[in-house]
Amino acid sequence: MPKQPANPEPAHPDVDSMLSRKFGKEVANYFSGSPLNRLAFLRADNVFLSQALKHSSTSFLLCNELQPLVQANTPPGAGKLAYVKYEDIKPVIGENPYAQTEKEIIEAYNSDVYVPQMIFLGIDEKDKNGLEYQGKNKYMGAPYFAIDVTPRNSVKEACEKLIEAQKAKGLDFSKGRVMDVVAQDAAVYAEARQLLDWNVRNPFCASCGQPTMSVNAGFKRTCPPTDKSTKRISNALPSTTEQVVDQSARPPCVTRNGVSNLSFPRTDPTVIMAVVNSAGDKILLGRQRRWPPYWFSTLAGFAEPAESIEEAVRREVYEEAGVLLGRVVIHSTQPWPYPANLMIGAIGQAIPTGETIDLGNDPELDDARWFDFEEVRNALAVGTSGLGEDAPAGYKEGGLRLPPNTAIANQLMTAVVNGFASGESKI
Amino acid sequence: MPKQPANPEPAHPDVDSMLSRKFGKEVANYFSGSPLNRLAFLRADNVFLSQALKHSSTSFLLCNELQPLVQANTPPGAGKLAYVKYEDIKPVIGENPYAQTEKEIIEAYNSDVYVPQMIFLGIDEKDKNGLEYQGKNKYMGAPYFAIDVTPRNSVKEACEKLIEAQKAKGLDFSKGRVMDVVAQDAAVYAEARQLLDWNVRNPFCASCGQPTMSVNAGFKRTCPPTDKSTKRISNALPSTTEQVVDQSARPPCVTRNGVSNLSFPRTDPTVIMAVVNSAGDKILLGRQRRWPPYWFSTLAGFAEPAESIEEAVRREVYEEAGVLLGRVVIHSTQPWPYPANLMIGAIGQAIPTGETIDLGNDPELDDARWFDFEEVRNALAVGTSGLGEDAPAGYKEGGLRLPPNTAIANQLMTAVVNGFASGESKI
Question: Which segment of the chain is annotated as a signal peptide (chains A, B) (predicted)?
Fold first, then answer.
């Protein structure tokens, strides 16, 4: 897979509080820190989903072309998601898409029928007016769903009307990458976006080529054994060709026998790494041609099949910069829902004979250099901003510029210059 | 996705040497530690691949139904892969599947033609009689390929003959999970297996439902814009129906516009975690019903979309055991090519008010219990073995049994009882 850019993005005022959130002392990066309990084990329980759908405490996040509805007039970096209620979305989804059991819904599958994609995101257990549901244990909280309201197919008009109603209230959908909402909302949106995108991106079975359907509240796609379609379109033929078939049975598919990973959402592990020289006083940073002048970040790339993360870190640093690493330690991780990455942040140290930079193997980078800790420490103080933003006050032209603290790259560099790689710390 | 078992497997004599392998001091788990340089940036260079294919130093790993050819009469736990030469596989692959450029091969795509899957695994740079290739830099080493010789379609007889020839030499294909070969061979096989399996498992485009083809030496599947098939089979219809079409253009597909993750191999991140109580003297272990008596291991499961690894660890431990975690730190990772997992090993600590075990949320486990460090330390000394094996000498009936040191679960428990979670160490 092509290399993963370091993705520096706008600074975020909420990150510092994330670093000491309720459950842990480890570094929690932007897009993590969800306030919701996903209740994964209730996703196939349509009695639960039906109650969650209609409860007075339930919130629905509308996404149009994967962009979320957001509140109006929020301060920069403190954006908030906006939610609607069941009555608002009823014209789009109908009375209750979970009225039957999942088994019954699969048996009735008809690939002619467009079903707006919904995702059950979880419950907020802090809401004391939330739904109470007695499963194997009792669960209490306000349910959250995401719904794809991109105007399409049979629900085009209903979606357009719903969208217009929100705009009439002064609300609108976010534009570009969503990096300006508060951290907890970013985590909720990341879940919504990654699941909606995965469903949209995978309408056919990679094993047999037939259309699949979404089940498990948006967390699984199944290849139904039957299809009630009256006009099943041959996928192998130009899409104008239509075939009328009089029976609903479909050819066999191996994904129906046992468990197949093709039925479940995909997440692509990536590596991103702060590389320290063998003396422990310099960091290796690289830059891409399209970045602003003086801007650098940590190296990064996709992990490959059948390599450990530690090996992936060594391979990427060798490919992109020719530098050879000794020890590699994992620092923290960051979900990255564009479209489905998991960024695994590591800190590695070069071996003394492997510090010469060589951009010739895989010419991904425009430049790569070793920077003194002191220069990086200074840039972390006065040179960070989002990629599209101006340098902050205090920055002097010609000085090193770096990504903001919402980027895991920034957290890795911060850890290194604060002593992560020194004798007193844990590397 | 369903939970990932801890996968305890047979002990391996080579693991201790892996722990201090050339490049790092961090824990290197079984299936990592490949001796090959993958040269990822040369995978689309068919001039390079053609030379690598025919070089005298080149080795081919045959896989039949994903099982590798292995050497005969090796001692237990010291198995070795067996390789063949170009002349052996020529009847299966033809003179040179890389004779044209990749662009030309895609333009000539014909879904009627069966192409045996090959994977370029990398070069062994320690072999001084290897291929020398001048790309942007000079690369030297002995090339390794994997090839799927499962007898199928047009190459059924050629594969059968090749397989018989190996058996006549006393060689045979491995059976069951390959955990008894030396560590470096395990890493080479893991790469071969995961890539061969991914190609076999994904013959159709999940975006448009049409057949795809393997490119980039087995590391990419592309959805060609044309298909020279004379009998393209409609995927939406029963597979007996054949359609004759007189033009090769196929419907549009979004994977052809820019980069799509659907074109690249999938790796599923999983979490596996040693959980320590808040006092720091007990470990939480669980067991599945199908395991032998007294056998326990660490908890594990698939990471979900848009959660950090640290969040995934907390969610899984809550779902499976009802225990609530504070800090979570990542320890090491393990590739797991059955079929495409990346196991991310972590160590987490319970919060004082969250230590009560509750198996009721998601009844995955038959039992879960807190074990004193002392009991785990003793079991690591006298109670480890592969799942299907007898307890080792020195084990007393009724004592705790644990997975062997090829399992990352074992490495995590070892780290904990050796002080990873104590004040002097890095948690």
Answer: none
Which residue, B230, B263, B296, sits at the end of a domain?
B263
Q: Is B36 a member of any domain?
A: no
pLDDT in tens, B116-170: 999 999 999 999 999 999 998 999 999 999 999 999 999 999 999 999 999 999 9
Q: Are residues B232 and B350 in the same domain?
A: no
Q: Which residues of B touch A1 (CB under 8 A)?
A: 259, 261, 264-265
Note whether residue B351 is domain-resident. Answer: yes
Helix/strand/coil for A320? helix
Q: How far does the CA of residue B258 sit from the closest CA of chain A (Å)? A: 11
Strands A118-124 and A268-276 come out as: unpaired
- List, for residues A263-296, the tens digit of each pLDDT value: 999 999 999 999 999 999 999 999 999 999 999 9
Structural domain containing residue B132? 44-218+220-263
Residue B24 domain flag: no
ipTM of the shown complex: 0.91
Model pTM score: 0.91
Tokens of B223: 């959805």
Name which of B419, B274, B427, B267 is nearest B345 in CA terms. B274
Whether residues B386 and B408 fall in one domain: yes
Q: How far is A240 from chain B (nearest CA, A)?
A: 9
Strand partners, B286: B297, B368
Contacts of B20 (CB under 8 A, 6+ apart): none
Measured between alpha carbons, how far is A209 from A28 in angstroms, rounded to an integer?
40
Report yes or no: B300 and B270 within 8 Å, Cβ to Cβ. Answer: yes
Contact assessment for residue A286 and residue A368, using Cβ atoms and an 8 Å cutoff: yes
Q: d(Cα A409, Cα B45) in Å, to the nearest integer?
A: 32
Number of domains in chain A: 2
